[in-house]
Specification:
Elements lengths: L6 H22 L1 H9 L4 H32 L2 E7 L1 H13 L7 E7 L4 H22 L9 H18 L7 H8 L1 H22 L3
Antiparallel strand pairs: 1-2
Helix pairs in contact: 1-2, 1-3, 1-4, 3-5, 3-6, 5-6, 5-7, 5-8, 6-8, 7-8
């Protein structure tokens, strides 16, 4: 199996990564948003928070989407990520306004027909990746000066796992539920429980 990226896809991934980093930078640090608006933005502090956001929030979102792509290709699909530039602009505006909103885009796949099971596994790959990333960030919480990276990485990936397993609209949980109620039930309990634990113990927000 070979995973390839078109030039447009690479640009979309890069733009989504940066835009999400900017959006969460202003959401996490309200002083930076106010500084941008009144012309007193502290560049050094903004750069540090941007790096933190891109290493946690950006990575969590994009690896979630790339997991969909890899599994779709594994099942013989043609799959590419497409950024939603309108939604990315809205995410940055939401961050400046002080509330959380992010819908960077999605992986679109097509080709030969996939079974309900395969479609469910493609959907499940995203939240499963966030579960793995949640545990990958845990050790960093005890290591200075990376504790902030670990805490935010745990929190955001736990929330992404839980949120995307909601069986509603275009979210992954709906496709998993359509495939298997049993798999959905187990996955939802794990992801929702992880989201609650991430909020209580991650300390990322």
């Amino acid at each position: 199996m070979r995973v390839r990226f078109s030039s447009r896809e690479l640009i979309d991934l890069a733009v989504a990564w940066v835009a999400l980093g900017v959006a969460f930078t202003f959401f996490l640090r309200r002083d930076l948003a106010f500084g941008l608006l009144d012309g007193s933005l502290p560049v050094g502090r903004a750069a540090g928070t941007l790096a933190l956001s891109m290493a946690t929030v950006g990575v969590g979102f994009l690896l979630h989407e790339l997991a969909h792509k890899v599994v779709a290709i594994r099942f013989g699909q043609i799959a590419e990520f497409r950024a939603d530039y309108g939604m990315l602009a809205l995410a940055v505006g939401a961050g400046l306004a002080g509330f959380l909103f992010a819908a960077p885009g999605a992986v679109y796949h097509g080709g030969r027909n996939v079974t309900s099971r395969q479609n469910g596994l493609i959907a499940l790959a995203g939240p499963a990746t966030n579960v793995l990333l949640t545990f990958a960030f845990v050790p960093l919480m005890a290591v200075e000066p990376l504790s902030a990276v670990g805490a935010l990485g745990v929190t955001i990936n736990a929330l992404l796992a839980g949120f995307n397993m909601i069986p509603f609209g275009p979210l992954d949980g709906r496709k998993v539920l359509a495939w298997s109620k049993a798999v959905f039930a187990v996955s939802f309990v794990v992801c929702a429980g992880l989201a609650v634990a991430g909020l209580l113990f991650g300390g990322g927000f």
